[in-house]
Amino acid sequence: MRKLEKVILLSIHKVWLDMMESGEKDQEFREKIGVDWEPGMRVVLVSTKSGGGSGKLEAEFTMGSITTPTTYALANALVKEERAGSHQAAMRMLKKMGYNQQKNVIEIKEFFKWPKPKELRKIYSWNKLFKDFEDSARYDMSVDGVIRTKAESVQYVKDRIDYYKEAFLNSDQSCNVYDPCRGSVVPQSWAYGGVVVDE
């Protein structure tokens, strides 16, 4: 059975991607995150050209805990874990990992570097895909001639979006019908992507 998995497409500099691979960086720091980010979500990493990378999809990890600790608490945790010998050394380590007092700290779990980088087109733009579903649903409602209440219209569009989502999942993913919904631009910070997976 196929399903459409919502993933987070995260832009990152090559130096920090390499540190994740080596295990030296096990936390990602972001000032702003999505309201629906939660542990267990899949994060796909784009190594940005501006940061010395390929501009392609290169790795992924599973999102662990999401916290908003103070700078002191972050540094103190490294000392307690004996990863740093002093608070000052911990601060240097945090800076090396890309920490600049960003509000949100994301735990990196199950990091995996892909054998070969992949093009952005391998992932659909979540927003573009669902806009396509919604536009199709609203077009259907505009031409069927049925008069509906506001509540009925909302439910109709919702049901048709589900219909088009199911049709998408059952379609041949190699066809070009949904090509305009594929990823094409490296996100400035992050964006939502869609990946078709088999359960």
Short description:
34% of the residues lie in helices and 30% in strands.
Q: Overview of this structure, please?
A:
With 199 residues, this protein is α+β, with helices and mostly antiparallel strands. It folds into 2 domains: 2-68 and 103-122, Hypothetical protein (Archaeosine Trna-guanine Transglycosylase, Chain: A, domain 4, Roll); 126-182, no CATH class. Helix content is 34%, strand content 30%. The protein is built from 5 helices and 7 strands; from the N terminus they run E-H-E-E-E-H-H-E-E-H-H-E. A 7-stranded mixed sheet has the order 2-5-4-3-1-7-6. Helix 2 packs across helix 3 (87-96) and helix 4 (126-143) packs across helix 5. The longest helix has 20 residues, at 150-169. The mean pLDDT is 92.
Q: What is the count of DSSP helices, taking H or I runs of 4+ residues?
A: 5
* Second-tier CATH architecture of the largest domain: Roll
Compute the CA-based radius of gyration.
Answer: 21 Å
Mean pLDDT: 92
Strand order of the largest sheet: 2-5-4-3-1-7-6
CATH topology of the largest domain: Archaeosine Trna-guanine Transglycosylase, Chain: A, domain 4
How many angstroms separate the termini? 5 Å
Percentage of helical residues? 25-40%
Structural class determined from secondary elements: alpha+beta
For the secondary structure, the number of strands is 7
The helix/strand order is: EHEEEHHEEHHE
CATH class of the largest domain: Mainly Beta
Provide the β-strand percentage band: 25-35%
Taking pLDDT < 50 over at least 5 consecutive residues as the criterion, the unreliable ranges are none
CATH homologous superfamily annotation of the largest domain: Hypothetical protein
Biggest sheet features: 7 strands, mixed
Shape: elongated
Q: Please, how many domains?
A: 2
